Amino acid sequence: MDSPATTPFSTLIRTASHEQHTEAENSSFISDLLGGRLGIAAYRRYTEQLWFVYRALEATAPALADDPVAGPFIRPELARTAQLERDLAHLGGPEWRTGLVALPATEAYAARIQECARDWPAGYVAHHYTRYLGDLSGGQVIRGTAEKTWGFDRKGDGVRFYVFDEIDNPAAFKREYRELLDALPLDDIEKQQVITECKRAFALNTAMFRQLGEAFPLSA
Question: Helix 188-215 vs helix 121-136: angle between axes, to the nearest 10 degrees?
């Protein structure tokens, strides 16, 4: 069996956060959304919360572009804020920002991302990893459900968040991303701290799902 010293960091971070990742994926809100048991209002509210999260990730990214730890992960082809805004305009019309409110859990999530971006670039990478690799993988399941359930055109407004037009080969991109994780210039102590932050990122995401579930409970 490989020791932690020889196991690639991308493998360590994935396996160490597997439990938290599974908990987030199996939240009642996501299960109900994927099962087609929630209406388009729930999908819109979910998309609104994502906008707050990605604005925190991407508004802070330019200041990290030259950082030796976080810089290699700042890839323009990943940026989602503009796509989210197109989706929200489609879902809510030109005045979609009116009355837009972050859930308390979303506020906490975005604030933690901003704190890491400001004070701890390696922690920012943990949040970057949990979001974008998830978008390229499990996010595609949500996209398929949205297209089928609410009739969005494939790759059209409403699901643009999930469409990475500038990434021709998602599998190859994810391999390259994992290689960047493996090459992070961190010692073992900070790598463990990044793993802990990754678990925290999933927990923050799960809290957001929980509050979305409270806002959109299924009828008995």
Answer: 50
Residue 188 to residues 9, 55, 148, 191, Cα–Cα distance (Å): 10, 31, 45, 5
Residue-by-residue pLDDT tens, the chain, 220 positions: 444 558 999 999 999 888 887 877 778 998 898 888 999 999 999 999 999 999 999 999 999 999 999 999 999 999 999 999 999 999 999 999 998 999 999 999 999 999 999 999 999 999 999 999 988 887 888 888 888 888 887 768 899 999 999 999 999 999 999 999 999 999 999 999 999 999 999 999 999 999 999 999 874 3
Angle at 118 between CA 64 and CA 20, to 5 degrees: 95
pTM above the 0.85 mark? yes
3-state secondary structure of 178: helix
| H-helix or E-strand spanning residue 13 | helix 9-16
For helices 40-59 and 81-92, angle between their N-to-C axes, nearest 10 degrees: 150
- The conformation of residue 218, written as its DSSP 8-state character, comes to P
Q: Which of 124, 11, 136, 135 is nearest to 71 (CA)?
A: 124
